[in-house]
């Protein structure tokens, strides 16, 4: 990626988007998700994304300097949609651990319905270098927000709770990778997620 592309990408993310620009960005993300859903990471070619979104190739690069930037942003968009859905239909578990496990499995099943898209987004996260750090950080913050919402805390999380959330997020991400690679069944993923969510119970005495 050139220095000009990096600068353009930074400008695109730093300045608030107009309504027209936001609509264009949403078309780009929709096109990216559609192409990834059909053929995974390799199917997302910048020229094809531009054509599907109805924008010039140069315009696409001003929004997203590379395919990895685009797919990480696509994951961010997917998580935001999941977060909205989960807030409308919160988990019904009796304990914070049960609610988090239910939430993560619902998110997992949503990704399971689009395995090519899930694989493309996870590969982009794996390939992301330092230039994609802001987008990766946003994905991490969104995942944390989803987990904390499911916990249903009365106040701010403690340091121990935040540590538990980080371990849970790492496990969920690892479980997604092992499932995508065919090394874990859905049943095994559910067992692992429920097990790691018990860490939340261990932090109860420190609240």
Structure, described:
By secondary structure, this protein is mainly alpha-helical. It has a domain at 67-204: Tetracycline Repressor, domain 2. 76% of the residues lie in helices and 0% in strands. It has eleven helices and no strands. Helix 2 (19-39) packs across helix 3, helix 3 packs across helix 4 and helix 6 crosses helix 8. The longest helix has 22 residues, at 67-88. The protein is globular, with a radius of gyration of 18 Å. The N and C termini lie far apart (46 Å). Pfam families: TetR_C_20, TetR_N. Residues 1-14 have a biased composition (Low complexity). This is AcrR family transcriptional regulator.
Essential attributes:
Tetracycline Repressor, domain 2; transcription cis-regulatory region binding; single chain; HTH_TetR; Homeodomain-like_sf; 11 helices; AcrR family transcriptional regulator; mainly alpha; 207 residues; DNA-binding; disordered N terminus
């Amino acid at each position: 990626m050139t220095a000009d592309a990096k600068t353009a990408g930074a400008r695109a993310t730093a300045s608030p988007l107009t309504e027209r620009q936001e609509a264009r960005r949403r078309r780009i993300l929709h096109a990216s998700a559609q192409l990834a859903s059909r053929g995974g990471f390799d199917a997302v070619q910048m020229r094809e994304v531009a054509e599907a979104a109805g924008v010039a190739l140069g315009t696409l690069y001003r929004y997203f300097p590379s395919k990895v930037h685009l797919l990480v942003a696509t994951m961010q968009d997917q998580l935001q949609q999941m977060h909205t859905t989960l807030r409308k239909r919160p988990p019904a578990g009796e304990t914070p651990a049960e609610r988090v496990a239910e939430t993560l499995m619902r998110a997992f099943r949503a990704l399971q319905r689009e395995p090519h898209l899930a694989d493309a987004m996870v590969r982009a996260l794996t390939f992301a270098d330092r230039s994609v750090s802001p987008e990766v950080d946003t994905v991490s913050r969104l995942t944390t927000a989803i987990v904390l919402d499911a916990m249903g805390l009365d106040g701010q999380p403690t340091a121990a709770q935040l540590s538990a959330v980080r371990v849970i997020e790492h496990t969920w991400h690892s479980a997604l990778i092992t499932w995508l690679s065919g090394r874990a069944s859905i049943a095994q993923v559910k067992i692992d997620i429920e097990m790691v969510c018990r860490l939340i119970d261990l932090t109860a005495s420190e609240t």
